[in-house]
Amino acid sequence: MLLVCTGNICRSAFAERLGRAYLAEALGGEAGAIRIVSAGTRAVVGSAMHPDSARALRGFGAEPGDFRARQLNDAMAAEADLTLTMTRGHRRDVLHGAPRAMARTFTLREAADLLRLVGVDAEPNGDDYVGQARGLVRELAAARARRQSGERDDIRDPIGQPPEVHEEVGELITAALLPVLRRLVSLRPSANGRAPDPAVDPVNESSPGQVGPEGLPDDPVSDRTGESHQA
Fold it and tell me: What digits encode the pLDDT tens for the residues 175-219?
């Protein structure tokens, strides 16, 4: 799984480290079965996670650790089984360099909503775990015809905004990413119903934000401006 934003220090960095923490809790020693990496279209290469995003990440029970920003290259997207971007603009950037990855490239919020359309009971085709996981991605791509893309598919850039915005962006990322990871984990024969700790799996009935008409939480920063080119 490849996660993409602009600078790879806020949104995709948060998503990578949250996702890794979730998988470590859900799969234990088998967490490596799903590899999560991130990169930026204009990365602040070598930089640590933005301190406000790191603080927000800790609030969800994960740690930034030794994270360092990386620059996106075409090979990353071409090789990824699933690429999740923070905005539609990032998706366009990815596909400009790797056009054959279109059926495997979504915005994060788009993928979460497509998963809702596909349904949790759907059984993807595949002879083994990897095959089923790739089958699920194909089903997400096929479901695109059943929804319309729009601004709700974007997660805004928190760079230059107060810490509260980093927290709100973290809530949006968490609410979209964890259902995708849960579904991938559920395909593992050895998952055995392990339940992640609530500190790492905060998307439950008490999650911040309200569920909107498309099944995604309303964007708590939709009325904020300041989209920039770093996170």
Answer: 999 999 999 999 988 654 444 443 444 443 334 333 333 444 455
Distance CA 105, CA 30 (A): 25
CB-based contact 200:22 (threshold 8 Å): yes
Q: What is the pLDDT of residue 191?
A: 53
Q: CA end-to-end span of the chain, whole Å?
A: 19
What one-character-per-residue DSSP string does 129-183 give?
Answer: HHHHHHHHHHHHHHGGGGS---GGG-----TTS-HHHHHHHHHHHHHHHHHHHHH
Distance CA 210, CA 106 (A): 23
C-beta neighbour count of 165 within 10 angstroms: 21
User: What's the longest Cα–Cα distance across the chain?
Assistant: 48
- Helix (H) / strand (E) containing 35: none
Indicate the SS3 state at residue 201.
coil
> Which H/E stretch holds residue 5?
strand 2-5
Give the dihedral sign, CA 182/11/84/72. negative
Do you know the residue count of the chain?
Answer: 231
Check if the beta carbon of residue 217 is closer than 8 Å to that of residue 210: yes
Query: Among residues 174, 22, 59, which one has the least CA distance to residue 109?
Result: 174
Instruction: Give CATH superfamily name and number for 2-186.
Output: Response regulator (3.40.50.2300)
- Domains of the chain, by residue range, sit at 2-186
